[in-house]
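Worked Example 4.2. Consider the chain below.
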Amino acid sequence: MRMTWALPLLLLVAGTVSTVAIGAGPALGDDVLKPASQRMTEAGNAALARGDANAAIDSFEAALASDPKNVAAFSGIAQGYEKLGLPGKAVKYYREALALNPQDLAALEGQGKALIARGATARAQINLARIKALCKTECLAATRLQTALTTALASADTAKAAEAMAKN
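Applying the procedure from the previous section yields the following structure tokens:
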């Protein structure tokens, strides 16, 4: 019986062993961000604090180039787009953050507020329910999103009433 399958298996094992032996520097756990990514995230947060959304987005994008698992960088980009008045783009980046960490309360809250800005209050209510389920007790993220939802729904009701009066 010929063992032609053995050579590919041997090459596969040899390749795996050499990859492990060579490595790519010190091993970082999945939850540890690269220092360069952390520095760029801090620079992005500083730019947001001073109101420079474009510089913030640039810094956060650099952070992601260094480490694509940086949830805070995705959320930072989303916040930058919110400051630029682009809630649709913000929703997209919050979704990316939540794909990496579905339990990130700040991303859930931010996405909920961006959804409200787009008029998607039903979807924002889903985010609110997720936050409440994660918190189990009252938490600030839920309170802030609930307030934003209440305000948006009241404004929508007021606008509908004014429109109905204008038609009469």
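Helices lie at 6-22, 35-49, 53-66, 71-83, 87-100, 105-117, 121-135, 140-167. The CA atoms of residues 98 and 107 lie 7 Å apart. Compare this with Example 4.1 before moving on.
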